[in-house]
Amino acid sequence: SSGINAEWPLRPGIEGVRSVLVRTLEQTVEQIRRLRSAKYFLQKDVADKNAAISIDNSCHTLNNKDTDINLYEGVTQDLVSAVMPADWSNYSDANIKKAECEKQASVTLRSVIAGVIEQTRNDLLTQCRNVDLALKKRVEECSNAKERLTGHLDKVEKEIESMEGNISQLKAAIDEKLAPLKVAHTRLAQRSQRPNIELTRDPAQYQLVNEVKLIESAIAALESQLEASEASLKGLIRNQIDLKEDIRIKTKSLHIDKVLCQDLRATIDYSHY
């Protein structure tokens, strides 16, 4: 397995920076929500006061000669939802105090955000240098591995060529022994047709039987060797396929790390962020 992983200096650094930025963004979104809440209550308080001022101004201008004055039943009873003047004053003071508090919190948060952005930029610059070094080492390691695989593939292909030659020779040797075996079988078959007392187990008969056994034994040995050679060839071919696939992957990895990643990273300038 690879001793150098070009991603190890990249992931922790980027993930760490991203985590900090995400948390800061969440705090910012929450602070904006709180500011909007404070703004909403201030605007609502102002709107209510404007409405109250308009009503009081209208009441102030009423006189006995106005045509829209009238008698209303129950107007002198206490209003259930009415508040005391102190509560009225405290409510506005609380809204103002909350708005000022959120405003100050926003000022503090903006200062924190500026510090976070500066720190994350410095962290990214450090990680950028670490990644560049790791990528360079990874490219060297991958190039060396590809070179070793290519050399081994060359040896395997030569061995395949040699094994294919051996298999061809074994098949030829087996074919060469088929004709003598057929001759011996034919002789035995013909001699089995000898009439009557002539059908004897003479020395010729024994020699022919022995000849068949010897040829068949030789063919069996050759076929066994052929089977072993073909199995070995299959193993070599599988090895060849695996090596070619590994070389293809190494070539693609080199293209990604060297051509795509290194060339692309050369255009990165974190000082602008």
What is the helix tally? 3
Q: What would you report as the Rg, rounded to the nearest angstrom?
A: 49 Å
| Percent helix | over 70%
**Strand content range:** under 5%
N- to C-terminal distance: 37 Å
Segments where pLDDT lies below 50 for 5+ residues?
1-10
Global structural class:
mainly alpha
Polypeptide structure, described:
With 273 residues, the chain is an all-alpha fold. Helix content is 81%, strand content 0%. α1 runs antiparallel to α2. The protein is elongated. Mean pLDDT is 87; it is low at 1-10.
List keywords for this structure.
273 residues; mainly alpha; 0% strand; disordered N terminus
What's the structural blueprint in terms of helices and strands?
Blueprint: H1 10-61, H2 85-191, H3 203-265
Helix pairs in contact: 1-2, 2-3
